[in-house]
Write a structure and sequence with these properties.
Low-confidence stretches: none
Helix content: 10-25%
Shape: globular
Distance between the termini: 35 Å
Strand order of the largest sheet: 3-2-4-5-6-7
Mean pLDDT: 93
Number of strands: 8
Largest sheet: 6 strands, mixed
Structural class: alpha/beta
Radius of gyration: 16 Å
């Protein structure tokens, strides 16, 4: 099961909507071996495509170096589908190289009308484990934003 904070969920969805009609992509890092997605990292889709995403190799190298320096790992790897459901394509499955990661897909297909205007339709947000080419969908729990002591006092 993926447990993810509301703020990170909303940031992933906002990125997918903003980049539509191209696919959006990024990573949510967390402390090594924690399975806690904590740090949202929006990436650029180097392919600039509505049907394919690709991390820029130099950006990805820099990100992995930074995560290593911070004792982090990719907890969530996300991207969007702009015209199809939020289910991994054969290409997505072939590119899945992090067996410990949650692969989040966001579909924006019902959010835009024929001329590209946002019609307020629903966003599909789903998570998968992809290990050795085998796709397993998992439940997603979205936790509410954390309140600080100041925010909760009258």
């Amino acid at each position: 099961m993926l447990t993810i904070g509301q703020e990170i969920h909303d940031a992933i969805v906002a990125h997918a909507l903003r980049d539509h009609p191209d696919e959006a992509c990024g990573v949510v890092a967390g402390p090594e071996s924690s399975d806690r997605p904590e740090r949202f990292i929006e990436m650029v889709n180097a392919a600039g495509s509505p049907t394919f995403y690709e991390f820029d190799s130099s950006d990805l190298f820099a990100l992995y170096k930074e995560m290593d320096d911070r004792d982090e790992e990719p907890v969530v790897i996300y991207h969007s589908h702009t015209a199809t459901e939020a289910y991994p394509s054969r290409t997505d499955i072939g590119l899945a190289s992090e067996p410990g990661a949650h692969y989040v897909l966001v579909s924006t297909r019902d959010c835009f009308d024929e001329v590209g205007g946002n019609n307020g339709g629903p966003v599909e947000f789903r998570s998968y484990r992809i290990i050795d080419g085998v796709v397993s969908e998992e439940d997603v729990t979205i936790t509410p934003p954390q309140t600080t002591q100041e925010e909760s006092s009258p």
